[in-house]
Specification:
The protein has five helices and eight strands. By secondary structure, the chain is of the alpha+beta class. A hairpin with a 2-residue loop joins strand 6 and strand 7. The two termini are 35 Å apart.
Length: 180
């Protein structure tokens, strides 16, 4: 655990204010859920909760199947980082923060397909090697949960419309899984 040197008091309603610097660093927005853990020594840990985390194993299996059948790198992200990946070394993309370009697409709840000649959008802040070929937001009861992506390397070959439909179908399926 890393000490921040910041001390906050509990108010009369039991609330603690998380400092703005920490919220910005961890991308905690108003209304974001946090998990609370306790340690044996009396420590309390707040961790940003990702509902997509419950589907991480399932998303990994979907990525493996998509990757094997399309030959593309397949990835699923939650609102913050890539949580499932197939077809690329995990150390290059797994758990890396989403790129600002991907976050913008997700916030707009837009489906995306790369067209040759356009600016290529990075999938992750941690890698300039992989770019979005197609992306489809995962929505559950109208809330943005993450994104399904098929990635391309630096060569920038266009993906087919069928690839875009596949990503949209998987995103819709994952969204429905989160509702049940």
């Amino acid at each position: 655990m890393k000490a921040t040197g910041i001390v906050r008091r509990v108010d009369d309603l039991g609330r603690i204010v998380i400092p703005k610097e920490i919220r910005r660093t961890l991308k905690i927005r108003e209304g974001d859920p946090l998990e609370i853990y306790t340690e044996k020594d009396g420590g309390v840990i707040f961790r940003k909760y990702s509902p997509m985390g419950d589907l991480q194993d399932f998303a990994s299996q979907l990525c493996e199947s998509i990757g094997a059948n399309t030959g593309h790198v397949a990835a699923v992200s939650d609102r913050d980082c890539i949580i499932a990946l197939s077809g690329a070394p995990k150390r290059e993309l797994m758990d890396k923060p989403n790129s600002p370009e991907l976050e913008k697409l997700m916030e707009q709840r837009r489906n995306y397909r790369y067209i040759p000649g356009e600016t290529m959008l990075r999938a992750s802040d941690g890698s300039d090697k992989y770019h979005l070929g197609v992306a489809a937001p995962i929505l559950s009861q109208g809330d943005l949960m993450g994104c399904v992506m098929l990635l391309m390397g630096e060569e920038g070959k266009a993906m087919a419309e069928a690839d875009q439909h596949l990503a949209q179908t998987v995103a819709g399926f994952l969204g429905k899984q989160m509702e049940s």
